[in-house]
Amino acid sequence: MSQKFQSERLGTEPIPKLLKSLSIPAIIGMVVMALYNVIDTIFISYGVGISAVAGVTITFPLMMIMMAISAAMGIGGASVISRRLGEKREKEANRVFGNVLTLILLLSVIGFTGAFTFLEPVLLAFGATPDILPYALDYMFPILLATLFFTFGFAANSIIRSEGNARFAMMAMIIPSVLNIILDAIFIFGLNMGVRGAAYATVISQVFTSAMVIQYFLSGKSTLSLTMSDFKLKFALVKEITLVGLPAFVQQAAGSLMMIAINAMLIRFGGEFYVGVFGIIQRIIMMSFMPMAGVMQGMQPIVGYNYGANNFARLRQTVLLSLKVTTIMSAFVFLIVMLFPSFLMSIFTSDTAVIEAGADSMRVMFAAVFLIGIQIISSGLYQALGKAKLALILSLSRQFIFLIPLVLILPHFFGTTGVWLAFPIADTFSFILASYLLYRHRGTFLGHKGVEEQAVDYKEATTSGS
Questions:
Q1: What's this model's pTM, rounded to 2 decimal places?
Q2: What is the DSSP string of 152-169?
Q3: What single-letter DSSP state applies at residue 228?
Q4: 3 state SS of 32
Q5: 198 and 140 Cβ atoms separated by less than 8 Å
Q6: Contact at 8 Å (CB) between 258 and 430?
């Protein structure tokens, strides 16, 4: 497939076939990436113990901040690039890519220096107790040293998808994830390196990801190409990348704050044991949501390209199909968790107390998960369209506006159960908000007007809303 056709098919290929070809690689890649996190936790649980799982869980907020930076640069850059390609402005798309790489390099310096300066105080502020702090330090120190590789690999993967090459983006997630799993087994069990072994396995796999991505761009397989002048920061592009990527950053940063709040409430009302339980459940949540996020990622380049090309009929068809698919997926997740929670927990541990506590907690937490599909698609939609304010509202809604206050309030009345109850209540409120915003713009997504009239209505609606 030629580089040009690779991008142009976003505006010509039938939507069901196109969404399938872009989503399935993203789903596979993200599931495998989540799987290595799951196996990482399984190995730590069986190889070290539930206290080690709690220590790694304490590091989640810091990990999510790293991912927030990556997501902001990657998704922001990918959205701008896909729209530039749709507008036939290839040179401008190259300049956007170069600016993203420069921003990544500058921001990665903070993570590297942070490993030697603020890591321990930050982990203590996040709720690390004397018993679990050593595990948290062993895990997070090597990862912070490798901030550049984490940020570059994640951001570049989003950009590769933006030009329609979902297959390579998938392989750039699958191969390092498999490598991580193999190294986990060697370092944790073979070399008895414990939690630090898991961190080393993760770092090596991310270095490998970066090498794959660099080779891809240097080989000429990409639609994008770079010259030295593309790396020079251009304020207008940096502003656009940052504004579009801000919702993704805020969503991940809000997730970090959410994790801090949850860990604090669990330690206060239940102890370190429940932090470990939540660490396992968090991995199950990740595995459950990754396929839906894959559909969203497959949708985004189609939406961005056709919005840039003013093809609103294809945009609408893509959104409706994505909503249907993710709704079916979320309903399936609901049924599995309600029917087999103990089995899911037993994958991670043989500790009966952990299994029983986790099974009861999961049934509460997943009670409204069948509503999550519309939240994921609507947030990704407005990111792809470059509608930063609407995407920001949706990104903030579930974790920051609804979930964190509920997590901080409900445990005072219901103990640790209050932490679990916060999830379905927040899901319900977020679903209502996302449904309202999509209904407000139904002239574009669901209406029966001509394409030109839909374009006018949508431009007016999103201009007033963003």
A1: 0.69
A2: HHHHHHHHHHHTT-HHHH
A3: G
A4: helix
A5: no
A6: no
The single residue listed with the structure tokens 């993967």 is: 157
Per-residue confidence in pLDDT tens, the chain, 466 aa: 444 445 566 766 778 888 887 888 778 777 777 777 788 788 888 878 788 888 888 888 888 788 777 777 877 777 777 777 777 777 777 787 788 888 888 888 888 888 788 888 888 888 788 888 888 888 889 888 888 888 887 777 777 776 667 677 778 778 888 888 889 889 988 888 888 888 898 889 889 888 888 888 777 776 667 677 777 777 877 787 777 777 777 777 777 888 889 988 998 898 888 888 888 898 888 888 888 888 888 888 788 777 777 777 788 888 888 899 999 999 999 999 999 999 999 988 888 888 999 999 999 999 999 998 888 888 888 877 777 678 778 877 887 889 999 999 999 999 999 999 999 999 999 999 988 888 886 665 544 444 444 444 444 444 444 4
Q: Which two tokens stand for residue 89?
A: 């402005």
Enumerate the domain spans of the chain.
Answer: 15-461
CB-based contact 384:315 (threshold 8 Å): no
The beta-carbon contacts of 115-122 under 8 Å, at least 24 apart in sequence, are 115/140, 115/141, 115/144, 115/145, 119/144, 122/62
Name the residue type at position 442. Answer: R
